[in-house]
Amino acid sequence: MTLEEAEKEALKCVHCGFCLETCPTYNVTRNELFSPRGRVLAFREGKSLEVFASCLFCRRCELACPSGVNYSKIYVEAIRRVRKLDVSGVVESPKLLSLTLGVLRRSRPYLPEPREPLAHKDEGAEVVIFPGCITSVLFGGLVEKAVKYFRSVGIKTEVVNGCCGLAHLHSGNEEGARKAVERLKERVKGRPIVGLSSNCVARLKEEGLEAYDFAEFVVKRGLPVKGRAELVTVHDSCHASHFGLGKYTREVLRMLGAKVVEMEEPNYECGAGGYSFILNDDVSEAVSEVKKNMVAKTGAEAVISTNPVCTLNFLRKGLRALHVLDLVEA
Ligand code: SF4
Ligand code: SF4
User: Based on the domain organization, do 126 and 194 belong to the same domain?
Assistant: First the structure.
């Protein structure tokens, strides 16, 4: 991606405003500067680029845009110039990530205790389990369960820990994001990848890898599942929504006998995008509150979230958040 490409995308904007109501930051501020159109215009004019700092990089605006503006290209180019925080080095090292999250946990007690990523490899492993960087250190129990589940259905796996590069893109580090995918490709060696973090799966799909969300793999391979049936609602994480991954989550829930009560806008941003789960600024907090109310209105016992950063934000807001795999018996 180049500056030229980003500028080309920005020029496609015809100021129609169709994206405004879909944008969570515009939705809570009613301020044009916090809208996709306002941000695209700022980029075109080359000024006030700090308006990108409040963008949650949820990409809902792309889904609404009739002119096909690839907002992601503009965002990555703009945020590179304004983002002061770059966590690329941290997410690439599980040890550093664990240490950092351990420190953050002192002031954020909702964070699970970090642990060493699980190392696992079956002889002749045919499928790669890719937890994603955050899941590997904060939701290790989920990774163990995935290994156990696949063993129970006769599939040999290898757990490959690492980063998909999405965290790099949040700080405009495109080169770092590209290298993260290259490193992953070398370790995956052409095998199918089953991801436990939906937004990472979406990123890997966009990069042309054979990646499946856990529920997607179960459905497409016709694998059996049994487990707990609960009254739940489903949150569709933003990047994963571009690939319609939520339908597989719902299908697995149906197979489990769970009752799903849909919330008003399942793919409304959780409020944690773009590092906001660390920074907690006013705009992302207001978006988180909107989402929390949507979940609460359903009366569900839990919100199903298959992306770890969204899950953490739900936990922060005092909600019971589970991955669909949490309900599966292994
Ligand atoms: S990526 Fe999301 S928050 Fe950012 S401008 Fe688009 S809709 Fe708004
Ligand atoms: S919907 Fe697309 S073309 Fe219309 S204002 Fe938004 S970015 Fe521009």
Answer: yes
End residue of a domain, out of 220, 235, 258: 220
- Report ipTM (2 d.p.): 0.98
Structural domains in the chain (count): 3
Q: What is the dihedral of CA 61, 64, 65, 71, to 10 degrees?
A: 20
Residue 318 CA, ligand 1 centroid: distance in Å: 25
Among 82, 109, 139, the domain boundary falls at: 82
C-beta of 58 in contact with ligand 1 (< 6 A)? yes
* pLDDT above 70 (res 182): yes
Q: What is the pLDDT of residue 281?
A: 79
Question: Same domain for 159 and 266?
Answer: no
Same-domain pairing of 53 and 126: no
Q: pLDDT band at 85, cuts 50/70/90?
A: confident
Q: How far is the CA of 35 from the centre of ligand 1 (A)?
A: 7
DSSP helix/strand/coil, 245: coil
Q: Which residues line ligand 2 (CB under 6 A)?
A: 13-19, 36-37, 40, 61, 64-65, 67, 69
Q: Do 190 and 109 share a structural domain?
A: yes
Instruction: Judge if 99 and 23 occupy the same domain.
Output: no
Tell me, what DSSP letter sits at residue 23? -
Q: DSSP string spanning 63-128?
A: HH-TT---HHHHHHHHHHHH-----HHHHT-HHHHHHHHHHHHHH-TTSPPP-PPPP-B-TT--EE
71 Cα nearest atom in ligand 2: 7
Label the pairing between strands 231-235 and 259-260: parallel
Report residue 81's pLDDT band, with 50, 70 and 90 as the boundaries: confident
Q: What is the mean pLDDT of residues 55-82?
A: 93
Q: What's the pLDDT band for 280 if we cut at 50, 70, 90? A: low
> Do 211 and 92 belong to one domain?
yes
Indicate which ligand has the atom closest to the C-alpha of 238.
Answer: 1
Print the domain residue range for 277. Answer: 225-327
Q: Please count the other Cβ atoms lying within 10 Å of the Cβ belonging to residue 262.
A: 12
**Whether residue 279 is found in the same domain as residue 303:** yes
Pair (51, 144) in one structural domain: no
